[in-house]
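Anyone else keep sequences and structure tokens together like this?

Example one:
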Amino acid sequence: MEQLLLADLSTELPGTVRLQRAVDTIQAHFKCDGVGLLILDDDSLRLVAAAGLPREALGRRVVIGRHPRFAAILSRREPTRFAPDSVLPDPYDGLLDDRKGSPLPVHDCLGTSLYADGRLWGALTLDDLNVGAFDDDAQRKLAHCSLLLGAAIRVTMLERENRNLRMLGSTDPGADATTAHSDILGESEPVQQLLHEIDIVADSDM
């Protein structure tokens, strides 16, 4: 998983493709039934990438105040696991590919908040119909994974800023778009800091 996520960081990809590939990689690694990547949008979370969930679920917004599981996940930096018999309603009821339209039975649920540039960006959630799928080791791996995913999110943000600069340069005859492109992707302080953090994450234990 780590190698796949890191490889995508050095590859130019559309933001939506990069995040979807990351979610697919995470689902394959944890061998779980569903993975959701959600971005914070005012008082809501919006699903921007998913695996094991129907495509029509993408773009769905859920109000955080109406979903205590999401509120709990966002309230802390460490992964949050919900007991299989938790009475808190599951926001994915009726959405898993294998159980469309039906409430989820007793299952394992694990989630973590995601940060980019030191600010809360959103959340990652994992669901598995096998009780006990997310043990202590899975929670440690998710904590590590969240750092790599945060790096992927930051790369996506930097690439978007770079595109905006290039568009601005193309409308300004006096601007050097090529220089702006080089600065963002090669020698700018944000990129150098990101590369340093990625090296630290890659060298750490899973």
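And example two:
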Amino acid sequence: MNVKLQSTKFVSIKDVTIPDVFYRRMQTGIEKLDAMFGGGILPGSSITLTARAGLGKTTLVLQMLERLVKSGKRVGYCSSEESIAQLAMTCKRLNVEDVQVCNEGNVDKISNHMKDLDVIVVDSFQGLVKGNLRGRELEKYCIEKLVVNAKETECAIVLICQMEELKLLLVVVHSSNHFHYLDMTCKIIQFFRSEEHTSELQSPAM
């Protein structure tokens, strides 16, 4: 995969200039969530969010996006899983009012939206399409297109995956020899304490 990194000569780490973007993390105001992202979401970063069905992926990201809107960020939620009417019903239950949503699975059209947004959520990776591409070729194209465009536009992207989708995604990324192609993988896990049912976020190492 082509991540568009330019070749450099060896340089002492103390002489490397750190771009301003690394100091402009976007905070949600949700303490644990911001801490998991290292103080906030890094502009241009690429994140996968994975869990079994029904554990709250959509709920989490909609609430996160609403918080970001309140802080002045431009956000979008692209769904190829649920209609915008279904999303509106979910948002009504969560008191989410200002998040922009659309039904779209075309990876090129989604990529084009990124130039106008600070954060975009794609639900889900499995629903992405590109012409006649299928299988591993489609997955590779989607990753490269979206992740590279995230860096170029500084629009952070969250790819929602089912558990089995994540395994395929990591195989595609790792087989390219770019082990840091995705900046973070988050997994919602489920645990029980007596009769209490709770969800918790983990950020496993890549």
